[in-house]
Amino acid sequence: MSENKILVVDDDESVLWVVQKALDHLGYEVASEKTMSNAKKSIPKYNVILLDMFLPDGNGLDLLREIKSTNPNALVIIITANSKMENAINAMKEGAYDYLEKPFDIDELTITVQRAFNDLKLRQEISQLRNKVIEKSSPQIVGKSKTMLKLFKEIGRIASKDVTVLISGESGSGKELVARAIHNNSLRKFNSFVAINCASIPKELIEAELFGWEKGAFTGAHEKRSGLIHTAMQGTLFLDELSELDINLQAKLLRFLQGQEYTPLGSDKSIKADVRIIGATNKDLRHCVKEGTFREDLYYRFNVIEVKVPSLRERQDDIIPLARHFLEESFRLFNLSPKEFSKDALKALTQYNWPGNVRELENKIKRASILSKGSIIEKKDLFYEEHSFNSIKDFLEGKLNGFIHKMVNLENLNLYDSVIQEVEKALFSIVLTQTEGNQLKASKILGINRNTLNKKIKQYKMNY
């Protein structure tokens, strides 16, 4: 779209002549249409439009509404010979940028058009800056697998449609990231994204958190307070763990979704709210409806569009890119020197089932980035729980390595007997201490005969 193109919608040839004479020498490209029907086809091509209030085939206000609907960034300057006050007021209420009366002064026309183009440029610069801020401040969804590309397409299709959305998926799969992506790609992106976890707040408090309260509404309500719906005004309210909402509160939420009105606690006045609602659940809401824990009418109200977030095991191709992404993130967050995964670690990452999904992967990577030694992250750094029970060999090798390295040059040391005796003595001592000297319990834990244990106690002169 050219930055210096302007459309004049007017059936008066003299108006077009005046506009061209005023703007041609300033470098503006002026085009014209005489009817609403023809102008509708040209609307997407122009961001500054001069529009007559009265046209041969309709009212210019109707066309103004259509312009603001199909090309909301366009700046429309109303021009008319009918200078009634209500015409000007109605035009500005419908979103007109300015209002000029015929016959208009050429200087006034020029100044108004130049101001419109300057404002348009400024708005575009601000929008670009805001988009950069959003990109830097918002966590990004990482993924190149087929399932994720399908998800990205769904987000792109529904983001601009101002409808209620239900996001379903396992815990830790990234449902809130999807909700933020929908918000950040919608017309509401420059307004607030407010998230609340319905399972983390007691049912007695969540209504007050959502709708707010008046002073004196309940014990402790010393001051009036706005709720999260008010905070999310003209933005998005994200209700995580939607299935955990109390059944009575579900009725009030339904009324809000139907009428976009709510009543704070302790008040008798309804408040209008322009808020988009996105819900998320890790449960099958249809099953919850059958069990009677979730209202059927609220389910259908939410399920206008459902977005299903795949589990991590359904997007195997994304595991390694995600792991590297979280590793890079750890370097920045914790001021760490660069590290890399070993081949065994990468293999283990792809073979693991990831019951906790992306959240579990992120936690394992960040923990390993901090606790691992050196520049290589090994399998045991990632899955330390597994190794804590199966690495006695590694433990003993680590402890004995330094000792044996110093002793191998000595002759006639009888190293085998010395090491075995010391390990046995230490092992028996630890188990007997844990069992408070009960040899029967100790022998069962050790897996040896009680008489054998008794002989060893005497051999090592242990006091049990």
Question: How would you explain this protein's 3D organization?
Answer:
The structure is a single chain. This protein has 464 residues and is α/β, with parallel strands linked by helices. The chain has four domains: 5-129, Rossmann fold (3-Layer(aba) Sandwich), CATH 3.40.50.2300; 147-310, P-loop containing nucleotide triphosphate hydrolases (Rossmann fold), CATH 3.40.50.300; 313-390, Helicase, Ruva Protein, domain 3 (Orthogonal Bundle), CATH 1.10.8.60; 399-459, Homeodomain-like (Arc Repressor Mutant, subunit A). The chain has helices at 13-23, 36-42, 60-70, 85-93, 106-137, 146-158, 175-184, 203-211, 228-231, 247-259, 285-291, 296-302, 319-334, 343-351, 357-371, 379-382, 384-390, 392-407, 415-434, 439-446, 450-459; strands spanning 5-9, 29-33, 48-52, 54-55, 58-59, 75-80, 98-101, 165-168, 193-197, 236-240, 261-262, 271-272, 276-281, 305-308, 340-341, 376-377. The strands form five sheets. Strands 2-1-3-6-7 form a five-stranded parallel sheet, sandwiched between helices. Strands 9-10-13-8-14 form a five-stranded parallel sheet. Helix 4 links the parallel strand 6 (75-80) and strand 7. The longest helix is centred in the N-terminal third of the chain and has 32 residues, at 106-137. The model has no long low-confidence stretch (mean pLDDT 85).
